[in-house]
Write a structure and sequence with these properties.
The chain is built from eleven helices and ten strands. The protein has 260 residues and is α/β, with parallel strands linked by helices. The protein has two domains: 137 residues, 3-Layer(aba) Sandwich (Rossmann fold), CATH 3.40.50.1860; 112 residues, Rossmann fold (3-Layer(aba) Sandwich), CATH 3.40.50.1860. Strand 7, helix 9 and strand 8 form a beta-alpha-beta unit. Helix 2 crosses helix 3, helix 4 crosses helix 6 and helix 8 crosses helix 9. The longest helix is centred in the N-terminal third of the chain and has 17 residues. It is globular and about 50 Å long. The model has no long low-confidence stretch (mean pLDDT 90).
Length: 260
């Protein structure tokens, strides 16, 4: 039975990459909701509705568990949906927070994410509960998602945007920065340059894969990756192959979702 993964666009491929490293024999079905990206500027009700549609689709494809490879969906929908979709549902927040607390010392922790993720307070609350008294600096960085979707990973515009967004972290001398959006690991180079080498970046994608490693065993699949998109693929395949490697994708198909 394959593993289901979904995100609003291409950002969830960072989770796919981490999962493929952790479970090279695991078949993965990935849904990128490219027709409705980004999720970060939408209401909780809308994100929950989108998530339920995708979960119903993946369940129909026979997955045995689903990873919401989207921090906005994790913050606004995962806890509410729980296992009501009929299969175990995993979000990004708990594993990302655990990784941040392991990486950090006494310095403040920075969190960057979409407007909806930051406004939800999910990371801030979980970090404060995990280490009372911890100084948490949260910053919404909504322009990062369209920049990644555009493929501007090392563009001068991206670096200028990053310097504007991350200035408060420099002033607060954060020791750890949580990349609370699965698009953001694709901007690690820019973010690290802006913050400096002394700041540890916590990749929620890698943290999620590590947390799942403990619950996976006895996999005898082929390691095939099948991708489903809600809009025309366009340059998507080229971006996937540049990120995951040529021949990494078994198939790409456009789908039409209905309410689950």
């Amino acid at each position: 039975m394959p593993l289901g993964v979904f995100d609003s666009g291409i950002g969830g491929l960072t989770v796919v990459q981490a999962l493929r490293r952790a479970f090279p024999k695991r078949d993965i079905l990935y849904v990128g909701d490219t027709a409705r990206v980004p999720y970060g500027n939408k209401s909780a009700e809308t994100v929950e509705g989108y998530s339920r549609e995708i979960i119903a689709f993946l369940k129909g494809k026979g997955v045995d568990r689903i990873v919401a490879a989207c921090n906005t969906a994790s913050a606004l929908a995962v806890k509410k949906i729980g296992n009501s979709g009929g299969v175990p549902l995993h979000g990004m927040i708990e594993s990302g927070v655990r990784a941040a607390l392991r990486a950090g010392g006494e310095d403040p922790v920075g969190v960057i994410g979409t407007s909806a993720t930051i406004a939800s307070g999910a990371y801030q609350i979980a970090l404060a509960q995990g280490r009372p008294g911890l100084r948490v600096v949260a910053q919404a960085t909504p322009l990062f998602v369209p920049l990644v979707e555009e493929g501007w990973l090392e563009h001068e515009v991206t670096e200028k945007v990053a310097r504007e967004y991350l200035q408060p972290f420099i002033g607060e001398r954060v020791g750890v920065c949580v990349l609370a959006c699965t698009h953001y690991p694709l901007l690690k180079g820019v973010i690290q340059r802006v913050l400096g080498e002394g700041v540890r970046l916590v990749d929620s994608s890698e943290a999620c894969a590590e947390s799942l490693r403990e619950s996976e065993s006895g996999i005898v699949e082929k390691g095939e990756l099948r991708i489903y998109l809600t809009d025309e693929p366009g340059p998507f395949l080229g971006r996937v192959e540049s990120f995951l490697g040529k021949g990494a994708v078994g198939s790409i198909e456009r789908i039409h979702l209905t309410q689950g």
